[in-house]
Amino acid sequence: MILPIYAYGHPVLRKMGVDIDKDYENLTQLIENMQETMVNANGIGLAAPQIGKAIRLFIVDTSPFEKDEDLDDKEREFLANFKKVFINAKILKEEGEEWVFNEGCLSIPDITEDVFRQEKITIEYVDENFEKHTDVIDGLAARVVQHEYDHIEGVLFTDKISSLKKRLIKKRLENITKGNVNPSYRMKFPSLKK
Fold it and tell me: To 5 degrees, how large is the angle CA 99–CA 136–CA 63?
């Protein structure tokens, strides 16, 4: 089932997610719904707070980068197959040079900004079968994971841009909060009673 994506300004996007266990109600269905919602919105990641649940769950699917001709063959092939569920994730280490990439977010439609992030992470999590993993991820995959991880920490990519850029997009962010945007997917706006 395709779920509405919670828009910028909704309080759930600022909550620290809580850990869940394997008995979390309808977890398998929730993950399937999140995947369907993400694909429907042409996303490459989706975190549970974006569908109104303040839990430590996010999914990524970087296969759309497979068509990016600016990437080398090795990275393009890796991204084509990088599809994971992260539950109760904890980034243990961020390392390497900070690099810039223009990021967007399904909760903040029609706004993209340059965000600096470190190039490599070590992350511990359990998958949908509650098997524990510790992965070292770098490049674009690491950036996608960092972006989604921020969501379960109550952080948005707009928190990572300069105060000048925040002032420049302030009105556009207010419009999102008020529902004055027209994305191609269903959204739930904080100022509208739906």
Answer: 70
Domain boundaries, the chain: 5-178
pTM of the model: 0.95
Catalytic residues: 148
C-alpha 76: how far from its chain's center?
20
> Which CATH number is associated with domain 5-178?
3.90.45.10
In this predicted model, what pLDDT tens digit does every residue of 113-170 receive, in sequence order?
999 999 999 999 999 999 999 999 999 999 999 999 999 999 999 999 999 999 999 9
Q: Which residues pair with 135 in a beta bridge?
A: 123
73-80 vs 139-152: helix crossing angle, rounded to 10: 40
Report DSSP state, residue 55: B
